[in-house]
Amino acid sequence: MLVGDSGVGKTCLLVRFKDGAFLAGSFISTVGIDFRNKVLTVDGVKVKLQIWDTAGQERFRSVTHAYYRDAHALLLLYDVTNKASFDNIQAWLTEIHEYAQQDVVLMLLGNKVDSAQDRVVKREDGEKLAKEYGVPFMETSAKSGLNVELAFTAIAKELKHRSMKLPNEPKFKLHDYVKKEVRGSGCCRS
Ligand SMILES: Nc1nc2c(ncn2[C@@H]2O[C@H](COP(=O)(O)OP(=O)(O)OP(=O)(O)O)[C@@H](O)[C@H]2O)c(=O)[nH]1
């Protein structure tokens, strides 16, 4: 499930991952909740991800609360060009703590890194916050595609590992895996 303030790029991130495209132009806010499926092959095993895209707007909050309970993983986004969306991360984490399963897989994503000139949230601030809460962290761009595949693959690997629990398989380490992240703005393919 994708969560975070309105306008941080949740729908665009999902569309980039699902269709490999960027929704340029006018911003159409998600109403309530929507989902898309994508099948990934992870270590030779097919994993079907059902990805729920939530509305970031406050007025839909009661709708999204109802979905937290069934989520196996949450991608929590802020927009590196919008300080308020970063400042609200703690409130989102409180909400997640209240409504989601205790062992939910959680990852923090700083999106829109292609907009280097408009950046107001430093990479180190994202890293620091993620470290404080023990959450894996990456910077992404739905516009350029930077780290989008990697973020969803990391989640898929973790979920596959949890569901299969093969005795001889080494433990998958999500925190280590996200170190494959490509740094920079990744500017720009549409
Ligand atoms: N430059 C840039 N713009 C982006 C990126 N991702 C999204 N946007 C733009 O940000 C705006 C909001 O994107 P959405 O994906 O609709 O945001 P959202 O988080 O789904 O918003 P809600 O549905 O209201 O919760 C749109 O105008 C997008 O084109 C990105 O990675 N880079």
Automatic annotation (TrEMBL):
Which UniProt keywords are given for this protein, alphabetically ordered? GTP-binding, Hydrolase, Lipoprotein, Magnesium, Metal-binding, Nucleotide-binding, Prenylation, Protein transport, Transport
A Gene Ontology molecular function term of the record: GTP binding
Enzyme Commission number: 3.6.5.2
InterPro entries xrefs: P-loop_NTPase, Small_GTP-bd, Small_GTPase
Which reactions is this enzyme annotated as catalysing? GTP + H2O = GDP + phosphate + H(+)
Q: Which cofactor does it need?
A: Mg(2+)
Q: What Gene Ontology biological process does one annotation of this record name?
A: protein transport
Q: What class of enzyme is it?
A: hydrolase
The family classification in the record reads: Belongs to the small GTPase superfamily. Rab family.
Q: Which NCBIfam families match?
A: small_GTP (TIGR00231)
Know the name of this protein?
small monomeric GTPase
- Source organism (scientific name): Lepidothrix coronata
| Taxonomic classification | Eukaryota, Metazoa, Chordata, Craniata, Vertebrata
